[in-house]
Design brief:
Largest sheet: 7 strands, mixed
Order of helices and strands: EEEEEEHEEEEE
Helix content: under 10%
Distance between the termini: 40 Å
Number of helices: 1
Shape: globular
Number of strands: 11
Radius of gyration: 13 Å
Structural class: mainly beta
Strand content: over 45%
């Protein structure tokens, strides 16, 4: 059973930056896709990006320009760095691990393991 723990969220002003971390309990997660999702109040969980074997997929070009996903396999930890934060980035950010087929990587139901989430609030 893989356990994922996110950290690094908080309250930040628009234009600021944050780095979120997702620590996995063991190396099992490093052999799977690891992904970041976010969920704003009243909205569905949204795919942010995923990483597997060093290959990164972002939700779209706008996210790719401000969001950077990386992973330190020695620490079993994945990171999400967010720059130029906007109020619309306010959400609970979750990390997930699993083995979705490539075409299904954006579907939260394709991931087996989830962290508890970390709140990111961006003030204008």
């Amino acid at each position: 059973q893989v356990q994922l723990v996110e950290s690094g969220g908080g309250l930040v002003q628009a234009g600021g930056s944050l780095r979120l971390s997702c620590a996995a309990s063991d190396r099992t997660a490093s052999r799977q896709d690891m992904a970041w999702f976010r969920q704003a109040a009243g909205k569905d969980r949204e795919f942010v990006g995923a990483i597997r074997s060093g290959r990164i997929t972002y939700a779209d070009d706008s996210v790719k320009g401000r969001f950077t996903i990386s992973r330190d396999t020695a620490k079993n930890t994945m990171y999400l760095e967010i720059n130029s934060l906007k109020p619309e980035d306010t959400a609970v950010y979750y990390c997930a691990a699993g083995t979705p087929i490539l075409s299904n990587r954006r579907n939260p139901e394709a991931y087996r393991y989830w962290g508890q989430g970390t709140q990111v609030t961006v003030s204008s």
